[in-house]
Protein 1
Amino acid sequence: METILNASRYLTEEQAEFYRVEGYLVLKGILDDADMAPIREALMDKVSRIADELLEAGIVDDLMEDAPFEKRLAHLFKGRPDSDFLKYGRGWRDRHPGCYEFMSNPKILDAVESLIGPEIFCSPVYNVRPKVPGVAAGAVPWHQDKSYWPESNANPVITVWIPLVETNDENGCLMVWPRTQHTKLLSYHHETITSTKYLEIDEKHLAGKKELSLPVKPGDMILFNDRCIHASGPNNSDGVRWSMDLRYQPTDQDPMPERGAGFLARSLIHPERVATREDWIAERPEHDE
Ligand SMILES: O=C(O)CCC(=O)C(=O)O
């Protein structure tokens, strides 16, 4: 059997310990341009389709084809009401081949394997987040991801949060409240201020909150678990804060089929069952031939 181990991409014991104690981990310079290409291309395609639609509907008179990836969506929606953008959704979950390529990236899976072992299921819950400047719904309130699947016995679910552009306080980078990963699920409600209905931790739990901004660059990734409390601010820059949040869990946990079809991303025991791109597009969690 071909080995999938590649020691250089695994977390060091020190990194794994930091993750265990702090509840998050920032990894710098892991992904290169070739790793990012499939997802960038998928998103550039999607933005072009949106531009075509806006032109056809008479909402814009310029496709902004010369604008860079970091800016094009911002230019297209500049000065328009939030609702024009939110029609496309605040988080995207397209079943585009580029998403599968990216979610199966061995460097990402190696980091995850260091924490949960080599039997890895990729969760159906993943998002591309084009946080467009000025769109109120760009900010994400303080929450635990587990509040989105409180009944599920999936544990741990590891989020791998990946910037597609440089992120910072101005454009609404990810913020975490360290050492909250062992907290039980805290009570929460649907936020009402921006109409997103995002889940938000009840105010009484936020006294004494310690917020840590995690500015990162393309190539970096941030790992945290589904009870680690986190948020992000609004985008006050003039570019799009593009990111992806992917989720992985051990295969013996609840695959949450009611939230869509995830897929077997890596297995040392049954490598032949790892879902192919075609399986994923057809929404088959495993390769069953
Ligand atoms: O990307 C963001 O702004 C928030 C991300 C988030 O809440 C998540 O990944 O669960």
Protein 2
Amino acid sequence: MQLEVIAIGGYEEVGRNMTAVNVDGEIVIFDMGIRLDRVMIHEDTDISKMHSLNLIEMGVIPNDTVMKHVEGEVKAIVLTHGHLDHIGAITKLAHRYNAPIIGTPYTLELVKREILSEKKFDVRNPLVTLNPGETKDLTPNLSLEFIRATHSIPDSVFAALHTPYGAILYANDFKFDNFPVVGERPDYRALKRLGKNGVICMISESTRVDHEGKTPSEIIAANLLKNDLLGTDNEGKGVVVTTFSSHIARIKSITEIAVKMDRIPILLGRSMMKYCGIAEDIGIVEFPEGTRMYGDPSAIDSALRTIAKEGKENYLLIVTGHQGEEGAVLSRMATNKTPYQFEKHDQVVFSADPIPNPINAAQRYMLESRLKLLGVRVFKGAHVSGHAAKEDHRDMIRWINAEHIIPSHGDFNLTASYTKLAEEEGYRLGEDVHLLRNGQCLSFERII
Ligand SMILES: [Zn+2]
């Protein structure tokens, strides 16, 4: 028996996730993501034109050269959801493997867009759709099951690889949301069944494990938004909300509140148009009638011109730029680079937490300061995370009852916090909960 887990990326950072599992020479890769804060420090670089080896050196994509030392053949590349830290390196690495890319419909549509915008490599791996709740044979010995999860992007799954020795569960990323605004609640029954049948190893995210308690449902974010938007005297004023473009559930809530306010929801921004357009096209979401979206900067400016002319009190704008990113719609609006003029008592709602790194903090500070100088009323806090908190993880650990656990999706602080939690549940570091660094491999033949 040969069974090994190779930690390729995402074990020393939040970003560039990639893990390989080798079962008797048949390899399955989970995720191929980028690290966004490393992209940001190299501004003016067009990643689409860059070679993978340069990007590996810059720490932007996973260093998959470790795969050269792994004996076996890659049979599938499996994607759990469409966030860029999980799919963003597909265009740079997937062509090196003669294997299909398997994902849910929304994830694969996003992958197609990534491939279309790639200028350096020609990615021709077949794209194979697998829906949540379905199982697919990869080889006579291996099958892949997608179990419905909830996260901050639609169509997210847990991936269970069934092997002759038991299952390997890849749980990156998830929260347990019993009142999701888009899609259904997680498939708890499938998770518990998996645990009963025997899981050799669970690879779990650890991004929010050091937060006590349970991550609130998306319905709470919808209520916080209602509180900010319906509970404030914004009559006759401009109202702008900014959030993650891929957070379709959040955007749906905002558009529905706009209708309650008798305002037309307008989605503005290139990525807003991409993520929301695809979600609507494939039937994941239905925005209220009359919702409009614009992605191209000139189309955005012309829409803003019309809005300014017709009276901004008739509209609710949902825009990109919640981190203060230069060039995003909100920053352009705040610096008077669009035909929309902010005025005293206009309302801007940030429905996203700042991503904790100094670049983001500085950009977001500048944006908020600019808005306040213009007399804009700034609202923050209408947000809930898409990642499981400590007590969610505890439930997961108990249900899955894995023989071994590998925490991932975070630096040492986070994976160590997860390890502490696993120890509370009876695991022991180095025996059955394992801390891996990028490039390290854990072989189970010695342990089991
Ligand atoms: Zn994610």
